[in-house]
Amino acid sequence: MIPLATTLGAALALASPAQPDSRWMGWVFGGRSVQVLGGEDTRYILGGAVQYVAPHPRLRFRRQPGDLVLEAYGHSSHSRGASQQPPNVSNSYGLLAMGRYTRDWGTQKQVFFELGWGFQYANRRTVDLSGRLSSTPTVGAGMVFDWAGQQWNVALRIQHVSNAGFEGNNQGQNQLLGMVGVRF
Questions:
Q1: Domain of 113: which CATH number?
Q2: Model pTM?
Q3: String of DSSP letters for 94-136
Q4: Is residue 22 domain-resident?
Q5: Dist. CA 182–CA 33, nearest whole Å
Q6: CB 155 within 8 A of CB 170
Q7: Structural domain for 126, as ranges
Q8: Strands 150-161 and 173-183, sheet pairing
Q9: How far apart are CA 130 and CA 184, in angstroms?
Protein backbone atom coordinates (compact mmCIF):
# COMPACT_ATOMS: atom_id res chain seq x y z
CA MET A 1 0.00 0.00 0.00
CA ILE A 2 2.89 2.37 0.53
CA PRO A 3 3.37 2.84 -3.25
CA LEU A 4 -0.30 3.91 -3.65
CA ALA A 5 -0.08 6.43 -0.80
CA THR A 6 3.28 7.75 -2.04
CA THR A 7 2.00 8.09 -5.61
CA LEU A 8 -1.22 9.82 -4.57
CA GLY A 9 0.66 12.12 -2.18
CA ALA A 10 3.08 13.15 -4.93
CA ALA A 11 0.19 13.78 -7.32
CA LEU A 12 -1.55 15.97 -4.74
CA ALA A 13 1.62 17.94 -4.06
CA LEU A 14 2.20 18.60 -7.77
CA ALA A 15 -1.43 19.38 -8.65
CA SER A 16 -1.92 22.73 -10.32
CA PRO A 17 -4.26 25.20 -8.59
CA ALA A 18 -7.84 24.01 -8.91
CA GLN A 19 -10.34 25.80 -11.06
CA PRO A 20 -13.28 27.04 -8.96
CA ASP A 21 -15.64 24.74 -10.87
CA SER A 22 -13.41 21.63 -10.78
CA ARG A 23 -15.35 18.52 -9.82
CA TRP A 24 -12.39 16.21 -9.05
CA MET A 25 -10.73 15.64 -5.69
CA GLY A 26 -7.86 13.49 -4.47
CA TRP A 27 -7.64 12.21 -0.88
CA VAL A 28 -5.20 10.43 1.40
CA PHE A 29 -6.42 8.86 4.62
CA GLY A 30 -5.38 6.84 7.60
CA GLY A 31 -7.03 5.40 10.65
CA ARG A 32 -7.93 2.24 12.46
CA SER A 33 -10.80 -0.07 13.14
CA VAL A 34 -12.59 0.41 16.44
CA GLN A 35 -14.33 -2.28 18.47
CA VAL A 36 -17.81 -0.81 18.67
CA LEU A 37 -20.77 -3.20 18.36
CA GLY A 38 -18.65 -6.18 17.34
CA GLY A 39 -15.25 -6.78 15.87
CA GLU A 40 -12.09 -7.93 17.61
CA ASP A 41 -9.37 -7.50 14.97
CA THR A 42 -7.80 -4.04 15.35
CA ARG A 43 -6.53 -2.99 11.94
CA TYR A 44 -4.42 0.07 11.04
CA ILE A 45 -5.37 1.62 7.69
CA LEU A 46 -3.59 3.75 5.07
CA GLY A 47 -5.08 4.59 1.67
CA GLY A 48 -6.07 6.99 -1.06
CA ALA A 49 -9.20 7.97 -2.98
CA VAL A 50 -10.39 9.91 -6.01
CA GLN A 51 -13.78 11.62 -5.98
CA TYR A 52 -16.07 13.16 -8.56
CA VAL A 53 -18.33 15.81 -6.93
CA ALA A 54 -21.31 17.43 -8.69
CA PRO A 55 -24.44 19.27 -7.57
CA HIS A 56 -27.53 17.05 -7.78
CA PRO A 57 -31.08 18.46 -7.52
CA ARG A 58 -32.56 15.23 -6.08
CA LEU A 59 -30.22 15.41 -3.07
CA ARG A 60 -31.76 18.67 -1.84
CA PHE A 61 -32.70 18.52 1.86
CA ARG A 62 -35.28 21.18 2.67
CA ARG A 63 -33.57 24.33 1.33
CA GLN A 64 -30.04 22.88 1.49
CA PRO A 65 -28.66 21.83 -1.92
CA GLY A 66 -26.68 18.58 -1.99
CA ASP A 67 -23.78 17.24 -4.01
CA LEU A 68 -23.50 13.73 -5.39
CA VAL A 69 -20.06 12.31 -4.54
CA LEU A 70 -18.77 9.24 -6.38
CA GLU A 71 -15.59 7.82 -4.85
CA ALA A 72 -13.14 5.07 -5.79
CA TYR A 73 -10.60 4.13 -3.12
CA GLY A 74 -7.95 1.64 -2.18
CA HIS A 75 -6.36 0.97 1.17
CA SER A 76 -4.09 -1.38 2.97
CA SER A 77 -4.79 -2.51 6.52
CA HIS A 78 -2.44 -4.21 8.97
CA SER A 79 -3.43 -6.39 11.91
CA ARG A 80 -1.11 -7.37 14.76
CA GLY A 81 -3.13 -10.59 15.02
CA ALA A 82 -6.39 -11.59 16.70
CA SER A 83 -8.18 -14.80 17.75
CA GLN A 84 -5.04 -16.91 17.34
CA GLN A 85 -4.51 -15.56 13.80
CA PRO A 86 -1.02 -14.22 13.03
CA PRO A 87 -0.31 -10.63 11.98
CA ASN A 88 -1.43 -9.96 8.41
CA VAL A 89 -1.99 -7.32 5.73
CA SER A 90 -5.15 -6.94 3.67
CA ASN A 91 -5.65 -4.73 0.60
CA SER A 92 -9.16 -3.47 -0.14
CA TYR A 93 -10.73 -1.56 -3.02
CA GLY A 94 -14.11 0.12 -2.96
CA LEU A 95 -16.70 2.32 -4.58
CA LEU A 96 -18.93 4.76 -2.66
CA ALA A 97 -21.88 6.96 -3.60
CA MET A 98 -22.58 9.74 -1.10
CA GLY A 99 -24.68 12.83 -0.59
CA ARG A 100 -22.66 15.80 0.71
CA TYR A 101 -24.15 18.93 2.25
CA THR A 102 -21.91 22.00 2.59
CA ARG A 103 -22.49 25.25 4.51
CA ASP A 104 -20.45 28.41 4.90
CA TRP A 105 -18.66 28.75 8.22
CA GLY A 106 -16.65 31.88 8.89
CA THR A 107 -14.41 33.64 6.42
CA GLN A 108 -13.42 31.50 3.42
CA LYS A 109 -14.32 28.27 5.22
CA GLN A 110 -17.09 25.74 4.83
CA VAL A 111 -18.18 22.67 6.75
CA PHE A 112 -19.78 19.58 5.27
CA PHE A 113 -21.66 16.46 6.27
CA GLU A 114 -21.76 13.37 4.06
CA LEU A 115 -23.75 10.15 4.12
CA GLY A 116 -23.42 7.24 1.71
CA TRP A 117 -23.12 3.59 0.89
CA GLY A 118 -20.99 1.37 -1.31
CA PHE A 119 -19.12 -1.89 -1.81
CA GLN A 120 -15.62 -3.03 -0.91
CA TYR A 121 -13.59 -5.99 -2.14
CA ALA A 122 -10.68 -7.32 -0.02
CA ASN A 123 -7.89 -9.59 -1.23
CA ARG A 124 -8.14 -11.76 1.91
CA ARG A 125 -10.54 -12.79 4.63
CA THR A 126 -9.84 -11.54 8.15
CA VAL A 127 -11.07 -12.35 11.66
CA ASP A 128 -13.83 -9.69 11.47
CA LEU A 129 -14.56 -9.93 7.74
CA SER A 130 -15.21 -13.54 6.75
CA GLY A 131 -16.13 -12.62 3.15
CA ARG A 132 -14.19 -10.70 0.53
CA LEU A 133 -17.12 -8.60 -0.74
CA SER A 134 -18.65 -6.24 1.82
CA SER A 135 -21.20 -3.45 2.10
CA THR A 136 -19.91 -0.09 3.36
CA PRO A 137 -22.39 2.39 4.86
CA THR A 138 -20.50 5.61 5.56
CA VAL A 139 -20.95 8.87 7.46
CA GLY A 140 -18.49 11.76 7.68
CA ALA A 141 -17.96 15.44 8.42
CA GLY A 142 -15.27 17.89 7.47
CA MET A 143 -14.07 21.38 6.67
CA VAL A 144 -13.19 23.07 3.36
CA PHE A 145 -10.65 25.91 3.21
CA ASP A 146 -8.31 27.63 0.77
CA TRP A 147 -4.57 27.38 1.26
CA ALA A 148 -1.75 28.21 -1.17
CA GLY A 149 -4.20 28.72 -4.03
CA GLN A 150 -5.80 25.29 -3.57
CA GLN A 151 -9.09 24.16 -2.08
CA TRP A 152 -8.26 21.72 0.74
CA ASN A 153 -10.54 19.47 2.79
CA VAL A 154 -10.02 17.75 6.12
CA ALA A 155 -12.56 15.18 7.25
CA LEU A 156 -13.36 12.49 9.77
CA ARG A 157 -15.25 9.46 8.47
CA ILE A 158 -16.79 6.39 10.07
CA GLN A 159 -17.24 3.46 7.72
CA HIS A 160 -18.93 0.19 8.63
CA VAL A 161 -17.67 -2.78 6.63
CA SER A 162 -19.81 -5.93 6.70
CA ASN A 163 -20.98 -8.73 4.41
CA ALA A 164 -24.51 -8.57 5.92
CA GLY A 165 -24.36 -12.21 7.01
CA PHE A 166 -24.04 -13.61 3.48
CA GLU A 167 -20.79 -15.44 4.28
CA GLY A 168 -19.26 -16.65 7.55
CA ASN A 169 -19.81 -15.20 11.02
CA ASN A 170 -20.10 -11.51 9.95
CA GLN A 171 -18.65 -9.66 12.94
CA GLY A 172 -18.10 -6.67 10.70
CA GLN A 173 -15.68 -3.85 11.26
CA ASN A 174 -16.06 -0.14 12.06
CA GLN A 175 -13.28 2.04 10.68
CA LEU A 176 -12.49 5.54 11.92
CA LEU A 177 -10.60 7.47 9.22
CA GLY A 178 -8.89 10.88 9.21
CA MET A 179 -8.75 12.30 5.67
CA VAL A 180 -7.01 15.14 3.80
CA GLY A 181 -8.10 16.06 0.29
CA VAL A 182 -7.44 18.61 -2.42
CA ARG A 183 -9.50 19.71 -5.41
CA PHE A 184 -7.63 19.39 -8.72
A1: 2.40.160.20
A2: 0.84
A3: EEEEEEEEEEE-STTEEEEEEEEEEEEEESS--SS--SSEEE-
A4: no
A5: 25
A6: no
A7: 2-16+28-183
A8: antiparallel
A9: 37
